[in-house]
Give the backbone structure.
Amino acid sequence: MKQPRLVISGLSGGSGKTLVSLGLSRLFQRQGLAVQACKKGPDYIDYAWLALASKRPAACLDPYFLDDGHLLRQFCRVCAKQPTDIAVIEGNRGLFDGRDVEGTCSTAHVARTLKAPVVLTMNCAKMTRTAAAIVSGLANFEPDLHIAGVMLNNVAGERHGTMLRRAIESYTDIPVLGILPRLGKNPLPERHMGLSLNAADAETDGVLDFLADMLEEHTDVGVFLSLARSAPDLPCRPEESLPDSPAAPASKPSIGYVRDKAMWFYYEENLDALRDAGAELVQLDLFDPAPWPKIDGLYLGGGYPELFADEISVSPHLAEIRALSLADRPIYAECGGFMLLCNALLLDDGARPMAGLFPASPRFFRRPQGLGYVTARVTADNPFHPMGSLWRGHEFHYSRCEWSNGSRPACCLTLSPGTGMYEENGIRFDGLLSRRTFACWTHLFAPAVPHWAKNFVEECRR
């Protein structure tokens, strides 16, 4: 399969790789190219920005969730779903940073698996000749990795940029692809869980166009295209990468999912998995007062319910969610969705009532209370995950559960690693079940948990 592609990485967080990934994606898109943006690592907010920049859903490529073969097939499948002129793959953290000293699950691992050229971004503040030593070290650190060029970011002026370029191109054979000036302020707004985003905000397109304009002025976009097109063919055929057409089911259950200004943390792959398993998806909104249509099941992803807690607490849809649960309709909730199902959200200025399906009230803190990859073991029967199964996910929440009357209900999952809902005797627990309503802090990535969508849809069909 011939697929032009680039990996955008950096020395560390804050190097400028998100700025370059977004700017390139929007710049290619404006030039009429079909851009498939991808992100390495679990980050719904970066995915949403990349999707807006490229004007098509972004894809998750994470070697913690998928082994090399599955990662390659997932990439080919994403690019084969619709015409793709170029894939822009944003890394996370530093190029060689992984889960251990060997760099397991690093951005470099992804680049080698996909045989993709790497563009390295560097924050060059207060640096000149040392930049050449860093680039040289990176280029020779691991074999079979093609660092195709470097983007110099946060450069003080023309003299600074000239010194950096001369040093790197004198001491290494890595070309400098562009020199980005120091900006007065970060053009990407930030929030406690990372970048902020309001898809309906008129300023969002302005930010993306600003980044595209900056890259157009300070780089040669044709060089990026040439590098991407130089990537070797991949050992998969486009037609083999697409999912098999499912047999027509006896019934096509409808699954609602809440996507609005508060709740929008969904992997597109999860929604695709539900569709591929035979579901018809219905998008819902907590803030639209109109009654929801009849649905057979409900999927509640993550988001920022704490920022809209006053509005959510008086939403008539909380009663509809309660009624669905009491009627034994399958409900699956992750993180922010779990918070909607609790007794209340505990904020600095008081409690906000929620749906009241679980005897927990999340209290918010200024620092993360659960952060990172998890492995979940299923320890109790439930409609969604087979007893005894082991699957991988991630958590990222700034809240911790407080329990009604101090009681801690039995959970369906144990996490290692992970934080979960509580710890007892050194074991960390997650995943509450009430009737056919399942809720946990842990987010899953459907291609890595293939039983989830099939079981969810089958439960709704029943």
Observations:
- Confidence is low (pLDDT under 50) at residues 191-195.
- The domain at 5-240 is CATH 3.40.50.300 (Rossmann fold).
- The chain has two domains: 5-240, 254-461.
- The longest helix spans residues 202-218.
